[in-house]
Batch of 2 targets.
Target 1
Amino acid sequence: MEKVSMVFRKKNCMGCHACEVACKQEHGLGVGPRLVQVLEKSPDYIPIYCHHCAKAPCKEACPVEAISRNEQGIVLIDNDLCIGCRECLEACPFGAMQFEDSQEIAVKCDLCVHRLEDNRRPACMTVCPTGCIYLSGKKSIAAVFEKTTRGGSK
Amino acid sequence: MSEVKFVKTVCRSCHGGCGVIAHVKDGKVIKVEGDPESPISHGTMCAKGLAITQLAYHPDRVLYPMQKTNGDWKRISWDEALDTVASKFKDVIAEYGSEAIIVGQGTGRDYESHFSRFGNLLGTPNILTAGHMCYLSRIGATLTTCGRHPAIDYANNPKCIVMWACNPQWTNPDEYKGVSFWRAYEKGAKLIVIDPRKGFLAKRADLWLQLRPGTDAALAMGFFSVIIEEELYDREFVSQYIHGWDAFVERVRKDYTLKRVEETTWVKQDLIRKAARLYATTKPAGIHWGVPTEQTNNCTDFTRTAVGLMAVTGNLDAPGGNVFHVPPPVRKVAEFSAHTELPKEQVKKRLGGEQYKLAARMTFITPKCAWDAILTEKPYPVKAGYLIGTNPVVSRANAGEVYQALKKLDFLVVQDFFLTPTAELADIFLPAGTWLEQNHVAENWKFHGYVLARQKVVEIGECWQDHKIFMELGKKMGQQWWDSVEDALDWLLEPTGLTWDEFKKKGYLHGDQKYYKHLEKGFSTPTGKVELYSTIFEKWGVDPLPKYTELPESPISQPDMAKKYPYILNAGLRTPTFFHSANRQIPWLREIRPDPIVEIHPQTASQHNIEEGDWVWIESPRGKAKERAKLNDGIDPRVIVAEHGWWYPEIQSSGHGWDVSNINMLTDNSHESMDPVMGATNLRVLLCNISRCEDE
């Protein structure tokens, strides 16, 4: 099965935070865990998100094998298996792993796998006004950056 | 388990217009998504709109009418509520006249037509809106200059975009959303950004002009200085379609040399020259301008000068320039509003009508006149208020005075979602519906050529959409209305040949767009030309030519005051999560922005021993507010930038901390500080000092 991956073109992120709210809504999350988060250092905006790493440090750190990588390359966490030890939070180099206090479990971006099954884009991607969020399949992530229009040439 | 139903509608979490698909299950909206078929938003939505379910189903939302007795709110029925309001209003009218009732709204929830109709049929000329300093002020200024509001035409790909005091990807998208701008920009348009603050767009711009806040009108004159000197204007257009060109040129040559413009605006002469050349020589080019230009004493003159720039460069009503969009043939807001029903003798009583002539012509008043009349009973007493979707104790200038005035009213009705600091002062609270609870021919007042079907998705509690409340209250007052909200929409739509039910299925209508309409019929002004020299202003005894008037409170106009208050406060910084005073209680949004932010240049901060994250007092001659420091080296060290609209819903006591972080505790609303024809309050630029809060 074809692997998918997501990238944010940081230079086109303008800090509107729409992706964050779309994600919370899609995953029914309240205050606390932010599966995608945009840090503000005006005029720069830095999206923090799961890279679904090929050799995922979160997966390697998990002592109970609650984290797995599916055939599309999406790194998923099984909430029933998670023991809430937070090893994965420490292991993630991006700060993308989050913790849900009410259930005392780790939570993470699942690339809206349920939407992908229906051939719909991840929720964050649908709302971005500059289209800075890309979902890349066959083509490598590098190709996303090559296929720049104006944003990349400047 | 019932199935999920999908309903198409239109957002109104800000000025609105974005297409939405609402997901409904068991009679409740469980999710909203952008509608890819929307001609306005193309499937995107912003944080505010996406959070609507948290607003609509918020535990603090008031879901039934309430009456306050002896300081306590108690639930009443709609009949009791409307009967009480109608009988109180009738008493006030009998004793003091209809003009003793102020009818006011904020940005509004797309009910301008119904709001104005209610006011007119009530017989009060005292209609209070944000229009004196927001949007309607540009409609008034463009109306008198070129006959209609010229919005930038992104659909036809401007080759040069001037983003003037606006960040449409975050906020205030009147005609156009950020996505329309971005599409045009991505196609390779040159970008000129005029902003005192280095934001996302300034960083991307070909030219960024970092001006002294509030000097936009002077900068626009600087553009003209270059365009005239280098003869970059369209000679044919100027000779045929500009009224007053020679007088205008004389003024520019005399008063706006580039050297002088640089001194006023802080923008280097060569940068002004480059920007003016780029704008004037790239075709087509469009100007997209924002509300900060309107919230100063130069409100009208800036817009008039900007229209002049569009006109002389040949970009007015040219595809890809600034165009007069042709609306679909729906009945107009003005017709629905029944302005002609307001008796002439009542029109004459409009507060400040003689002084603020353009505001009066646009049928509203500046708030200062309302507060004066309430507090001093001059020129006559104002005794009652009906405020809809507005929180003036937070959002209007000189908040302390606003609070005193509203407190003094004998009878106040507030129509809203929550018990805001303003609503806490009311006697009757009427629970309004959100945009999810509204049937309306939306955006009929905008100048983008569309009307959109906002259809009711759900009903929540006993809330009514505002339109219905105006109607039912109006009927209790003996006014002429339709039987139902939908009957009124049928009437609005009649010229299109569609009923509301048919329109709702269609989703939207677009006007039959034509360009260069002046070639056939000139411009809709008294001379048929673009009036750089306004014959209307001349008749009113006002300077017929636009100019820059120094800000009422600046180091230049108030050097003594500047000794104690050395910084220029640029108030009213927008955020992508809040809309004026709204949304502070929405968990998803407040998590993103938990505190009010004041931006300070690192150099200035260190002089005051302020570090990132410190609470800071911002103080003006009128009052103070505290906000949290964010260091930003993208602003001038002489400028302090502060957010507006803050109150704390989580503070349970009455008032909800309305005066703690409210930047309008500092702003001025004196008559001397306002735009002379529009009564625009100077919300954006004043003098201030800062200090670290020692008690935090």
Target 2
Amino acid sequence: MPTELKGAIEARKALRKFTPDLSKELQKEMAALLKPIVTVARGFIPATVLSGWSKAEASDTKYRQFPRFDAATARRGIGYRTAPSKVNRSGFRALARIANVSAAGAIYETAGRLNPDGRSQGPVVDRYLNGVYDKTTHTGRQYSQSLNPNAGKQFIDALDATGRIVDANNQTGRGRRSRKMKGRAIYRAWAEDGGKTNAAVIKAIEKTKIIFNNNFKAAA
Amino acid sequence: MAVDPQVVVNIATEFTGKKAFKEAETATSKLSKGVKTLAKSLGLAFSVGAVVRFGKQSVKAFSDSQKEAKLLATQLNAVNLGFASPFIGQFIDKLALATGKAGGDLTNAFVSLSQATGDASTAQALLQTALDVSLGTGKDLQTVSNALARAYKGETTALAKLRIGFTTAELKGKNFDEILKTLNNNFKGAAANAVDTYAGKMARLSEAVDMAKEKLGEGLVSGLDDASISIDDLQVKIINLGEALGKTAAGSVSFADKIISQFQRIQDSSAAQGLLNIFEALVRGVGFIVTGELVPTMDQASARLAGKEALKEQERGRARLRAAKALGKAEKDNAANKLKNEKKITDEKAIQAKLDKAALALGKGEDVFDLDKIQIQAAILAKQDEINKLGANATDQQKLQLANDAQRLTVKQLMLDLEDAIADKDVERATTLSKQLNTELAILGTLTGQTYKLGEIDKILERFKPKDLINLDNLDAAIKKLNEIMGSKFDFLSPIMPSQDRTGINDLSPDITSRYVAGDPEAVRAVEAHADAISMLAESELALADALLAESERALNIATASLTTGGLPDFFNPGAFRMRDEPIRIEIVDKTSGLIEVVQNAVIENTRYGNSLTYSGNLTAI
């Protein structure tokens, strides 16, 4: 669970409105803090994972294909943002983020964190098609779509061979821990940072708020 | 960077909640912030340390205020606006409160403007504009005011140097009213917008505090009383001191000068410093007793104040930087817009050129299908065809008529061409066509004149000759006379008039000659008169000879025509004209000398134009 601040969003707005220079300085400071994490996270992206995953995609399909893994694209997809995010469903906004946005990079990041052995084969169900009853496997998202029952596990094992999934959630106390802070690249880098960057970012924000308030007190 | 919320590390999150919660929180936050700010302001204003500092600052503020007032009065007196000094002072105070600008800055700006305009109301309006520009651009108010004052006098360089959207060339092309209008349009409401910001409101409060300081300095005793400081003795002393100073000052010099100098003396005097130090110690002691905290000393307070001033200066620097950046961006945008507009204009010109070209082609097409021109061209061709058909058989009159018609058509065609050239604004072509038209009109005029003259000639000839031939009375008389002389022989070739012997007509008498040689004026006049008479006689004879020659030619023609069969009536039978041998003497009474001259001129003129004297219907010579 990330650290929660109070008044930080309003402070950022005020900074941008009254002291844009100070706002930019804060953004630069935050960027300087986040950039090393991004660099480390990019280093966790392997050059190749599975030879077949790097093959060129077919060009004439009408559906979105499984994204081809390209190490350079995946590395480029890891970045940071110092602008406040939109409000999520829970009503939270983040003042800074590190994200893995490329499709293949996100798959590499998260594959196996929900089902470490891959999705299971769907159960056999009855199907009525063209006036004929027969049997077929369930095609739901929670089931593997492959004819190979071990496809998921083989894929995840191959990814695990290049990088392990690390849980970056170091929160303690009551409650269930979310799995959503687990991953092979950015979450691993964030976990290895041990919260130092997080504290530094918050400190930078607080420091700027203090400077801002002092300036206005002085102006008053 | 589209962010997948599944693969993101959120750092330093904040719960903002739903919209309604957010609004409620915002309102609460604002309220609490406002309350805190108010509390802090009040706390700052009425803390014990602040009161001491406030007291000292008040004296200085009042001193400065008086200086400003005196400066304003002096400057207004210089431009004969001294009577308006109190009202302008009030105006500046109100403006300072409304905008948060320091009264001193406004006074200096107003002084600059009033010196330039010499008119209080104009200076007030310009001050408002200067404030708008200053707060809209971040430029110093005094700089803007000076630039406006110079611009009012016609020097726009300073205004251009402000870099507020004017170029030197633009300013040179405008008068001050236009410049002022543009400035008001561009920066209207800038001051109001600036004042409406948090910083603007704080500046207004700050200005109010400054004015309060002035008021406190003006009435230091009442100011200390408002601060609830129970230092009665000090109050009494200071009141007495102020009164004494006031009375002393009122004696000989102006109130303002003395107040200022006396306050400065108070500030500088060790006695006043000692009093203030005692005052400070008392306040610190009271503050410690009341709050339980050690009130900072004046030095500490001054150090804090200096720190805050440094922060303020830092903030001002940032504001200037922001304004400069904003201006740079605005200029960049302006340049981009200008470039865009120029490109647009260039494109429009290119399109217009294409349209003009198309219009020209269309015009050419219209020329081709211009019915007037076609008809004229056809008429010219028809005339030419007519001329060709008539060929050598055409009479001169017909040829002349045809030439006239053709010339008229040519002139009409030229007129149409000239109209087109004028419509096309083709000066060169219009000039050429005008010249050509003039030439053609002259030709047409000549032709028309010839026609007229031919008509006149016809009339003249009709009166002159045919009347003798056709008039029956004359004819009868002639036949009768011819019958009388029947048998006599008429010799057409014999001289009609015997020539006179003019031998010696030029001879002068010896007496006249000798006198002429001697230079006798009468002899000279006589010789000249004699020469003139001889010359006139010669001319008269020559004219008569020409007329007779013409008549002879005509008679010869008639005679020649009579040789053809059926050409003449019987009385023109040559046999009937066979005269007896005795010569017939015909005496012509010269009643036609003027007529002869007319005929002669007509003949000469027509000969010069190459026109035959025979006309349509006349007897043609064989």
